[in-house]
Write a structure and sequence with these properties.
This protein is mainly α and 84 residues long. It has two helices and no strands.
């Protein structure tokens, strides 16, 4: 009479393979944290955006004052700045 079902050895080997795969996935996620990488990318994008906005502001001030605008004027009191 033949026995139907899986053997204990096949069951143990399957469990060991699943444990190894789970360990590999856990190590992969902890080393390459996608959420942290996304937050870092957003931060770098914001810095680049702020930098370009500052550059455009300085260029606009320089051209609107026909070249007499100085970067040192940015540190002066804001009460005498004209609003557009």
């Amino acid at each position: 009479m033949k026995k139907k079902g899986i053997s204990l050895i096949v069951l143990v080997v399957t469990i060991i393979v699943i444990i190894i795969l789970a360990g590999a996935v856990i190590l992969s996620l902890t080393n390459n944290n996608p959420i942290e990488e996304a937050n870092e990318a957003v931060f770098k994008s914001n810095i680049e955006s702020y930098n370009s906005e500052i550059t455009l502001y300085v260029a606009k001030q320089y051209t609107s004052t026909t070249g007499t605008f100085r970067l040192e004027d940015l540190n002066k009191d804001s009460s005498n700045i004209k609003k557009d």
